Amino acid sequence: MTGLRLERDSSEPIYQQIAEQLRSQIASGALPLGCRLPTVRSLAGSLDVARQTVLEAYRLLGSWGLTEARVGDGTRVVRELPSAEARERLAALLASGPMADYEPLSSAGGLRSLATAVPDPALFLHDEFLAEIAELRNASPWAFYYAPPAGLPELRYALARERETAEAELLVTLGANHAIGLLLDELCSPGDQILVEEPGFLGMESFLTMRGLVAVRAPSGSAGLDLDALRSLVKGVKAILCWPSFGPATGSLAPLETRREIVRLAEERGIYVVEDAHYRPIAFYGQPPRLRSLSRSRFVVEVDSLSGYLAPGLRAGWVIADRELIGRLEQRVRGTGSAGLGFSQLALAGYLRKGRLAAHLERVIPRYRARRAALTSGLRFEWPDESAWFEPLGGLSVWVTLPTGGRYEDLYEQSLIRGVPFAPGALFGAPSNTLRLSFGTQRPESIQEAMAILGRLVRDRVR
Amino acid sequence: MTGLRLERDSSEPIYQQIAEQLRSQIASGALPLGCRLPTVRSLAGSLDVARQTVLEAYRLLGSWGLTEARVGDGTRVVRELPSAEARERLAALLASGPMADYEPLSSAGGLRSLATAVPDPALFLHDEFLAEIAELRNASPWAFYYAPPAGLPELRYALARERETAEAELLVTLGANHAIGLLLDELCSPGDQILVEEPGFLGMESFLTMRGLVAVRAPSGSAGLDLDALRSLVKGVKAILCWPSFGPATGSLAPLETRREIVRLAEERGIYVVEDAHYRPIAFYGQPPRLRSLSRSRFVVEVDSLSGYLAPGLRAGWVIADRELIGRLEQRVRGTGSAGLGFSQLALAGYLRKGRLAAHLERVIPRYRARRAALTSGLRFEWPDESAWFEPLGGLSVWVTLPTGGRYEDLYEQSLIRGVPFAPGALFGAPSNTLRLSFGTQRPESIQEAMAILGRLVRDRVR
User: Fold this and answer.
1) Mean pLDDT of B54-81
2) Is beta strand A239-242 parallel, antiparallel or unpaired with respect to A224-225?
């Protein structure tokens, strides 16, 4: 075991120096997965330190989930860490908007990611969906023709039934982002102001900037949009973008009163309000009402996506709005060549018709509830008491505000090195002592481990 | 047989009045498919006309493909015509840009459509593609996660091999329109001028207008862009959009000299040239070279799409350009939420890897050649001699200029009523005596019939 250099004058304890340097060697691949570390006795001898110091270092590596000690087998590396290059790529991804490629990359790198609020691909029984596709053997060859810009009639029909609306008021999109993009492009012009809940969704900043739109940020707490702020900020805005049922960052839930006031303001001022409802079905205690159930005025628009609770790779979302606006969006889809895949939409329609989506939700919601419990019990027992957060009633995320005054500059980098990425609040335009922890893709045991590792890092920085 | 009203003073011959009114009754459904027309004797009696007049009217209906006479069985309706409402919808569709929903609608209406330059869905062996999808049963659940914005690595790899380029120079899109849209959005700003071949693709007008771009139209003949026109028009334009290998309207084919000059002008002036190559593989006598094979300069960009020769419903196209531009397009796909479907891309990658695309092309090209022959022999033998056209060496369309001075105002309407829609030249910004005939979706016998019907209509209007 060479290459360890101890600085005996440093304020960093020796055991921590040893652990950090071994961690670097694990990250670089110098100590690969399965490799056995030197015995405590031999390493203590070669470094000229007490055995207790090496023991402490190994204990620390173990608490990071990097090594495991077994009687008779010594201490082995049980986890690969992302290389510097992979870390850099991951860090860049996190900053560059909707993270289509983040999770597979971080999963391949052996990370326990709390970074993205997406459903667990492993919970999607893709055999059920593939069975629907297999039935297309008997379908008309037109199933492999273009899908109509507003979506295949069969899928529009199935979704409209599901959401109790008319087919002509529904347009199929490639997911929520595509839907919101179409709406903003149709309703707004560069320079227009959009009122949005703060914090919003990951990548919202670049999403709005790309269109030359100006975000007017209205603070949102556990009960969603702050009504006073909403009333004072709404003047002069072109549209409102909100998520009354489980904010993508915070898991906030707006009470009926707030929903009514949002709708009232939109109608009174003749501005559009876009409800992004794509976490709404992940509701742990009954589904909250949609804004469209309070008003079908043309100013109330709903966006949904199966990417939030079924499988992102199906790229299926939709807009519900009045016919006239749907017609304009249809022309826009035509003009941008962004219609979906006919055969996939046909298979999805069959999936919905057979009640498989409802069955899926019944199956997965208890699991997400258990994952949320693993995450919040970690917050309760492993994190500093002064952390502020609330237990969301739905969605896939918990928003945490850490004690002010802590030194969190390197928190993201250090958690990434330990295999536990999260979404820093800064990505949502929030202060550096905030972060979003998402519990969609990890199993409860992984979440427990991740929260222990992350909690320790946070506590170290609060002291 | 009631409801026939003859105007004996009209300049329109009686037999034609009878035929036209029976045609209307077929279109309205009053004479449904399979219905037997009255005998010649009884109709002549009730209308008080000569039997020869009724015989002539029935012969005309037969020549339109609407009825069939059999000895012992009389004359029956063998074709349904679109109702007034369906006709109206079809006519509106044709005018409203890329016609995602035109062909299935016209096929359902029993039309022999020559209107859209798309491949025949019936020639796509979708079982082969579904077999690839069935293999996803054993794939990682991440196959049902988001596809990366630049496309799934497996598909990028397979396409890059196919086109002899680097993976980092290729970005998967949802087809050619999506690719061109991304490029125009990235490279141009509202008010910019784009040099395009005239006639271009269907819907190009709205495609450019939606982006506030100004089309500078350079005339294109059988040999593609006119070089003198190109040189004199290129000043001040921001980009060139062209299809040296089989124009979507004309089937034009640019010689090597023209290709070299286009590339030279782009490089000299530092403007981008976008080659839309998505009909290039449908080549009846060997595939012409790509602009990218003449220069890999960053100014030479290629767009392709499987919608031109495999199946539009897979929504798979791609851009080939230098890495830097591909990176910018990747960000744009991320920001617009317009990435494709991971599982579909994975299946396509398998399809390509097994050489199925090459086999598909080998199988379908002789068929498209036969369809082209059916269409051009119709032009040769059934149409007025003064019609100008050339036999394209690839692609799916023939461009026809009819004798000037003919009365073509009602040609599209009348051909639609007879079940033979085409794409009027006006949709491409061309004079009213031009039209595009496409031979992708109809079998040779249908094309022969369609050309006979249409030829007769044209001849009537030239006289």
Assistant:
1) 86
2) unpaired
Structural domains for chain B = 14-77 (1.10.10.10), 84-124+359-462 (3.90.1150.10), 126-357 (3.40.640.10)
- DSSP code string of A244-288: SBS-TTT--B--HHHHHHHHHHHHHHT-EEEEE-TTTT-BTTSPP
Q: Which of B105, B113, B144 to mutate to test the interface with A (most CBs of A within 10 A)?
A: B144
pLDDT tens-digit profile of A88-105?
A: 776 676 665 545 677 777
Q: Which long-range contacts link B17-26 to residues 24+ away (Cβ below 8 Å)?
A: B18/B43, B18/B47, B18/B49, B18/B53, B18/B54, B18/B57, B19/B57, B19/B58, B19/B60, B19/B61, B19/B64, B22/B57, B22/B61, B23/B61, B23/B64, B23/B66, B23/B81, B23/B417, B23/B418, B26/B66, B26/B77, B26/B79, B26/B80, B26/B81
Which residues of chain B have a CB within 8 Å of the CB of A153? none
> Given this model, what pLDDT does residue B359 score?
97
User: In whole angstroms, what is the distance from residue B338 CA to residue A33 CA?
Assistant: 38
Tokens in use for B93? 């569709």
- Mean pLDDT (chain A) is 91
Q: Which residues of B touch A109 (CB under 8 A)?
A: none
Residues in chain A within 8 Å Cβ distance of B125: none
Least confident of A144-153, A287-296, B65-74, B346-355: B65-74
For residue A75, is pLDDT > 70?
yes
Tell me which of A102, A182, A211, A336 to substitute to probe the interface with B (most B C-beta atoms closer than 10 Å): A336
- Sort out which chain B residues have CB atoms less than 8 A from A312's CB and list them: 144-146
Residue B65 gets which letter from DSSP?
T
Which of the pair, B274 or A29, is modelled with greater confidence? B274
- Residues 77-116 on A with a CB inside 8 Å of B are 96-98, 100-101, 103-104, 107
Pair A173, A302: CB distance under 8 Å: no
Give the N- to C-terminal CA distance of chain B in Å, as an integer. Answer: 33
pLDDT score of B316: 95
Q: Is B305 on the interface with A (CB under 8 A)?
A: no
